[in-house]
Amino acid sequence: MPSSERSGVDEGCVTAETAVVLPVLAIVAVSMLWGLMAACAQIQCVDAARAGARAAARQEASADVVAVAEQAAPRGARVSVGREGELVRVSVEARSAGIGGLALDVGAEAVALAEDRVGGAVESEEGGVAERREDGAVAGG
């Protein structure tokens, strides 16, 4: 078979292969972008929760803690602040970018020790600072 006859048959195969491969490559690229956007939203939630926990540990007002966390969080994130004994807990939840069912719920939670408890110092009823001794008694004030 002469080479000129064979090359005419092969030309159609290349076009068919390209028609199949290009949509697959586009789907892979879009999937990678979607995953990257979801990972970025998760990282923003972690950063926002940490920033909020640091602010809450410094005994800032709840509204200020929420504002600090919302500033670092993705758009539309829900921030909740709570205290459990000596610990402050900040949770941030958000919806990652995506179309319809492709959007994911992402979130993070950070916990910090309240600074009024760090180093054994406690606030006395008179407003002064007292030192907690090793035996648990409070001295000073």
Automatic annotation (TrEMBL):
Residues 122-141 are annotated as: Disordered. The keyword S-adenosyl-L-methionine does not apply. Coiled coil: none annotated. Residues 14-54 form the TadE-like domain. Keywords: Membrane, Transmembrane, Transmembrane helix. NCBIfam families: TadE_Rv3655c. This is TadE-like domain-containing protein.
